[in-house]
């Protein structure tokens, strides 16, 4: 189907028709509506949405998406972003509860991520968390590429795209909030280093503003999105 589509928009829209596994019966594939990407974020799998709800991967209504969207806002419009998941549909237990996708489910959906990278040609792909980083690393490079224990994130280049494994935003917000400034600095540095449009002074302003935003909500007793 994808090979017969001529425009970038048509090729991306064709991904919504994926029926490679049974997960589409739980919920159809969730895709970003944007069709340009200097930077791509790759989460693990989709979350549940209400019927007819306008939703995208890593939505700002989720904890992870809120932080991702906050970082994006500091770089736009000079840098374009696209958000996706390794598994586009919703993995559910037989009880109806959300679960992590299995290795076979990740394998069956991986061709969709390959197509997104091929269509959009991002300069930088952030792999969020250990499961995504190691799975994609094995597929692209033949070995795991889990992120470093610190926040000096390493990039792994394939063709014109650099893959950067980073800590999952939700993990940082829940368990490593004291290190949030270092995390934001590492992510901003990766964007600036691989995409450009970022001097050192601007980088410092961005990470300071975002750090204050996170800490301000915490001190004010404002809950982060779930």
Sequence of strands across the biggest β-sheet: 2-1-3-5-4
Instruction: Give unreliable regions as ranges.
Output: none
In CATH, the homologous superfamily goes by the name Uracil-DNA glycosylase-like domain
Q: What's the CATH topology name? A: Uracil-DNA Glycosylase, subunit E
Specify the biggest β-sheet. 5 strands, mixed
CATH class: Alpha Beta
Percent range for β-strand residues = 5-15%
Note the gap between the termini: 36 Å
> Helical segment tally?
7
Strand segment count = 5
How many separate structural domains?
A: 1
Structural class by SSE content: alpha/beta
Overall geometry = globular
Give a structural overview:
This protein has 226 residues and is α/β, with parallel strands linked by helices. It has a single domain (2-219), classed as Uracil-DNA Glycosylase, subunit E, CATH 3.40.470. It contains seven helices and five strands, in the order H-E-H-E-H-E-H-E-E-H-H-H. It has helices at residues 8-14, 63-73, 103-120, 130-141, 169-175, 180-195, 200-219, and strands spanning 39-45, 81-87, 124-128, 156-158, 161-166. Strands 2-1-3-5-4 form a five-stranded mixed beta sheet, with helices on both faces. Helix 6 (180-195) packs antiparallel against helix 7 (200-219). The longest helix is centred in the C-terminal third of the chain and has 20 residues, at 200-219. The chain is globular, with a radius of gyration of 17 Å. The mean pLDDT is 85.
């Amino acid at each position: 189907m994808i090979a017969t589509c001529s425009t970038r928009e048509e090729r991306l829209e064709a991904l919504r028709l994926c029926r490679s596994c049974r997960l589409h019966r739980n919920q159809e594939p969730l895709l970003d509506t944007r069709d340009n990407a200097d930077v791509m974020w790759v989460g693990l799998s989709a979350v549940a949405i209400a019927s007819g709800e306008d939703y995208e991967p890593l939505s700002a209504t989720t904890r992870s998406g809120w932080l991702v969207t906050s970082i994006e806002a500091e770089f736009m419009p000079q840098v374009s972003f696209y958000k996706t998941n390794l598994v586009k549909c919703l993995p559910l237990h037989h009880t109806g509860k959300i679960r992590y996708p299995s290795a076979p489910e990740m394998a069956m959906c991986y061709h969709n991520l390959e197509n997104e990278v091929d269509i959009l040609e991002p300069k930088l792909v952030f792999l969020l968390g250990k499961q995504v980083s190691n799975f994609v690393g094995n597929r692209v490079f033949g070995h795991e590429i889990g992120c470093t224990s610190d926040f000096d994130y390493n990039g792994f280049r394939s063709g014109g795209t650099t893959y950067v494994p980073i800590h999952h935003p939700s993990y940082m917000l829940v368990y490593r909030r004291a290190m949030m400034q270092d995390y934001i600095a590492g992510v901003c540095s990766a964007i600036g280093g691989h995409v450009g449009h970022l001097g050192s002074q601007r980088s410092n302003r961005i990470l300071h503003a975002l750090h204050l935003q996170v800490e301000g909500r915490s001190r004010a007793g404002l809950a982060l999105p779930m």
